[in-house]
Amino acid sequence: MFVEEDIMFEISELENGREGVRVTGEVDIYTATQFKEPIEKLIEANTKDIFLDLTDLSYIDSTGIGILIELRKGSMSRDLNMTLINPQKNVVKLLQLTGVDQIFSIVEEK
């Protein structure tokens, strides 16, 4: 787990018993590597359904978007599913503007 101020990326059991990464804070050039590491572990473990809980992700920049694309390509090469859960409106807008929303399942839950 990586923790710095209010930024946290950890593999954990999410709601409904799903395994995934809960993302808190911001993903930018300074935190991108720490964001990538736990997700890579799930891909390397061939976790069939990977969930990224973005409920508390307040910001993501182009570096973070690039990491998401790289991770999705890696998961697709192993025939793994990757779902983004509850991204905030500003994050959804950026995903749509860049077309990244087309390669991920995006789910809004309450």
What does this protein look like?
Strand 2 and strand 3 form a beta hairpin. The N terminus is likely disordered. 27% of the residues are buried. The protein has a single domain, classed as STAS domain (Transcription Regulator spoIIAA). The protein has 110 residues and is of the alpha/beta class. The longest helix is centred in the middle third of the chain and has 16 residues. Helix 1 packs parallel to helix 2. It has three helices and six strands. It starts with a strand and ends with a strand. It has a six-stranded mixed beta sheet.
- Mean pLDDT comes to 89
Give the CATH superfamily: STAS domain
Question: What's the β-strand tally?
Answer: 6
- Estimated radius of gyration: 13 Å
Oligomer: single chain
Q: Indicate the overall shape.
A: globular
Helix and strand arrangement:
Elements: E1 2-4, E2 7-13, E3 19-27, H1 32-44, E4 49-60, H2 62-77, E5 81-85, H3 89-98, E6 105-107
Helix pairs in contact: 1-2
Observed structural traits:
globular; 35% helix; alpha/beta; Transcription Regulator spoIIAA; disordered N terminus; 3 helices; 110 residues; six-stranded mixed sheet
Brief synopsis:
With 110 residues, this protein is α/β, with parallel strands linked by helices.
